[in-house]
Amino acid sequence: MGQNLFKKIISAHLLSGTMEPGSEVGIRIDQTLTQDALGTMAYLQFEAMGVPVVTTKSVSYVDHNTLQDGFENADDHRYLQTVADKHGIKYSKAGNGICHQVHLERFSRPGDTLIGSDSHTPTCGAVGMVAMGVGGMDVAVAMAGGPFYLTYPKILRVNLKEKLKPWCAAKDIILELLKILTTKGNVGTVIEYGGDGLESLTVPERATITNMGAELGVTTSLFPSDEMTRAFFKAQAREEEWQELQPDRDAEYDRIIELDLSEIVPNIACPHSPDNVRTVKEVAGLEVQQVLVGSCTNSSYRDLMMVAAMLKGRKVHPNVSFGIAPGSKQVLSMIAQNGALQDMIAAGARILESTCGFCVGCGQAPQTKGVSLRSNNRNFEGRSGTKDGQVYLVSPETCVAAALTGKVTDPRVLGLEYPNIVLPEVYEIDDSMVIQPSKDQIVAVFRGPNIGEPPKNSPMPEQLAAKVAIKVEDKITTDHIMPAGPYLKYRSNVPKYANYVFYHVDPEFAVKCAHNKEQGLASVIVAGLSYGQGSSREHAALCPMYLGVRVLLAKSVERIHGANLTNFGILQLTFADDADYERIQTGDELVVDNMQQAIMQDKVWVRNVTQGYAFETNCTLTRRQREIVLCGGLLNYTAK
Ligand code: MIC
Ligand code: SF4
């Protein structure tokens, strides 16, 4: 049997382990990326490792929070620039664009491995890279030359056939897959796309699909590197970095799904989950108050040319606020030069900065109960900044249809001529907003008062006594655990940010943990299925750790969040019997005895002292991960 593409790339980077589903492999990392909201912690951790210059091709982006409402944000940016300069990291200034869009354009390379402290890092899988979202600590270790460990996944092949009909977009393909596979239960899977349908899908369209693999919860998604990829590299003046990469014809897969592109119709993910997908036709007629095009999912040159062509000579509906955030300076500059930007402005669109902005709740919060149609990838409750905001996820085509009519509208019924968007043969190349590092060891790293030390955990005690501080249900996202938006500016200040853990779920959470601490008890989080979906933000582990959380008891845990918990020394256990989830209550006091021994078993017994019973839990960590947890996290483990 031949090899699939994932296996080919991993075997070229394999440092330890066997490539079998479920076993841990260590791999060499070629490239890393970070963004401002999670970069500061990654670089503070990197500094703590004492390595002078990174061993990887690394880029530090500023794209998430550029509002600079107060000194914190600007201070963080200056810290990032100086620390990058000193340690050999390229620095992409605010305004240069969204990390995944820029990385795809300027740094991606078929066959390379990339990890990034952002869950949408798999976007670069569009050009045949193995690109994965991880916690900042893992990025720090890779930059220092250490291996990256992952559980070898199962490979799901998605065979695409035929081609999309007019007005049906790449976004509709990935929404269709979300309908089929949902956001739950795909941990430990990698998606490889193949089939004749590839021929008609351009690199930016492929990137929309790999980008939202993050919402499926898969480890990564990848496309082969073919002639379409070559054309993209040529147009980016980087043809020499291209190489062809295909799976073997008789490659092995764990599962195969067929998807007929000609049957895909405009789709819409309804509040409050990316897998709550219906057809646009089913939701048509709903009044819309806000439309936003942008984010790392849909802000490419192709997308914005489509938007401009649909807007040309028309006006945005009087009741709609329509914002457009181009994905990168390259995109913005090109649409400015070819007149497309003017068509947007004339139609009444609001031109926003080339950043994540609205997507991460930095501005553009919708009105009370407002319906907002967006081209991005997440519509978790409250993420927009308005708790009762109703966010729907759609293609740029469907966005414009709503912006013009004021209602959810299937773009096929608008009666417009379908624009023929031709991708440029040459993109505008100007990398002047990427600052090359001096690697000068005497550079003074700027540290504003908002930047603290990364807190360390203590080793796991031999007898762990803890109290359940919160019990939550299924599909708790990292946005529930560690809200972004207005609190983003505290990302470098853990003691301050920790006050907001579970802020919108139980505002008393931090206080309860502090109370447990006073009584000499650790805290426990109890959760349902798919705990920790969404963002890679390690603060969702780091801040609970700071508050004294030592154990997560859940029905299941998502990959990146699970890895972050281990990195910060929080033990994750899953219920052997769901009935035990039902029985346990907030405030219950729990005990795990003989931790050194207990943690090395696949079954760990937990005593519920309050209710007077003991129950069994599963521990699925690898031996290395168990040792990390015992040490109280990766920093302690590495030091040891
Ligand atoms: C997101 O889309 O949720 C973010 C903001 O990009 C996060 C990173 C973060 O929390 O800073 C992600 O996806 O990892
Ligand atoms: Fe930025 Fe949104 Fe993409 Fe996250 S999902 S990287 S916030 S654009």
UniProtKB/TrEMBL annotation:
<dbReference type="Pfam" id="PF00694">
    <property type="entry name" value="Aconitase_C"/>
</dbReference>
<dbReference type="GO" id="GO:0006099">
    <property type="term" value="P:tricarboxylic acid cycle"/>
</dbReference>
<keyword id="KW-0479">Metal-binding</keyword>
<dbReference type="GO" id="GO:0005829">
    <property type="term" value="C:cytosol"/>
</dbReference>
<keyword id="KW-0408">Iron</keyword>
<dbReference type="GO" id="GO:0046872">
    <property type="term" value="F:metal ion binding"/>
</dbReference>
<dbReference type="InterPro" id="IPR001030">
    <property type="entry name" value="Acoase/IPM_deHydtase_lsu_aba"/>
</dbReference>
<comment type="subunit">
    <text>Monomer.</text>
</comment>
<dbReference type="InterPro" id="IPR015928">
    <property type="entry name" value="Aconitase/3IPM_dehydase_swvl"/>
</dbReference>
<feature type="domain" description="Aconitase A/isopropylmalate dehydratase small subunit swivel">
    <location>
        <begin position="507"/>
        <end position="577"/>
    </location>
</feature>
<dbReference type="InterPro" id="IPR006250">
    <property type="entry name" value="Aconitase_put"/>
</dbReference>
<protein>
    <submittedName>
        <fullName>Aconitate hydratase</fullName>
    </submittedName>
</protein>
<dbReference type="GO" id="GO:0003994">
    <property type="term" value="F:aconitate hydratase activity"/>
</dbReference>
<dbReference type="InterPro" id="IPR036008">
    <property type="entry name" value="Aconitase_4Fe-4S_dom"/>
</dbReference>
<dbReference type="InterPro" id="IPR050926">
    <property type="entry name" value="Aconitase/IPM_isomerase"/>
</dbReference>
<dbReference type="InterPro" id="IPR000573">
    <property type="entry name" value="AconitaseA/IPMdHydase_ssu_swvl"/>
</dbReference>
<comment type="similarity">
    <text>Belongs to the aconitase/IPM isomerase family.</text>
</comment>
<feature type="domain" description="Aconitase/3-isopropylmalate dehydratase large subunit alpha/beta/alpha">
    <location>
        <begin position="8"/>
        <end position="282"/>
    </location>
</feature>
<dbReference type="InterPro" id="IPR018136">
    <property type="entry name" value="Aconitase_4Fe-4S_BS"/>
</dbReference>
<feature type="domain" description="Aconitase/3-isopropylmalate dehydratase large subunit alpha/beta/alpha">
    <location>
        <begin position="283"/>
        <end position="406"/>
    </location>
</feature>
<dbReference type="GO" id="GO:0051539">
    <property type="term" value="F:4 iron, 4 sulfur cluster binding"/>
</dbReference>
<keyword id="KW-0411">Iron-sulfur</keyword>
<dbReference type="Pfam" id="PF00330">
    <property type="entry name" value="Aconitase"/>
</dbReference>
<dbReference type="InterPro" id="IPR015931">
    <property type="entry name" value="Acnase/IPM_dHydase_lsu_aba_1/3"/>
</dbReference>
